[in-house]
Amino acid sequence: MELKNMVAMVARSGRQLQRYDKGHRQVVGCIPYRIKSNKGNNLEDALEVLVISAQRKGKGMLFPKGGWESDESLKEAALRESVEEAGVFGTVEKILGKWHFKSKTHGSSYEGFMFPLLVKEQLECWPEKDIRQRVWVSVPKAKEVCQHSWMKEALDLLVSRLESSATKIDEESV
């Protein structure tokens, strides 16, 4: 059954299937994005990204992410987290990278993988709708409100990749 048809489900919980590598909990996330217009030459003006509120009040905004579980691929986990936390579907694109970081709250070590998600559909109801807010913002605003430096680095990589792709398309059409 398609993940899209199972959205009425509750978000996964528990850590029974959680992956670890050398003591680092493995997490995966997405930067949901859309191009709102192709007018002008500045990609950052046309690009919007979706940020969500952290589960704990007052802990800022971030991109959807969560544990990578043993019964799914990295891309499947990235899409699942985007559906559960932000209520968006789309195309999970080529990985942006891998980061190592520590939780400020728990002191735990993590290995985080981030992917771009070109959003195709935004759901009205999703598993964490009642505990998270989602907001489409500009790239500069996302950098301002995002609480994790490694996620800001991933966003910079996404913007560079999209700018590079736009440049290649422009050059090919000459």
Describe what you observe in this structure.
It is a single chain. The protein has 174 residues and is an alpha+beta fold. It has a single domain, classed as Nucleoside Triphosphate Pyrophosphohydrolase (Alpha-Beta Complex). The chain is 28% helix and 32% strand. Residues 1-8 have low confidence and may be disordered.
Salient structural properties:
28% helix, 32% strand, nine-stranded mixed β-sheet, alpha+beta, 9 strands, globular, Nucleoside Triphosphate Pyrophosphohydrolase, 174 residues, 4 helices
Concise structural overview:
With 174 residues, the chain is α+β, with helices and mostly antiparallel strands. The chain has helices at residues 43-46, 74-86, 139-145, 149-172, and strands at residues 20-21, 24-35, 47-53, 61-62, 65-67, 88-92, 97-102, 109-122, 134-138.
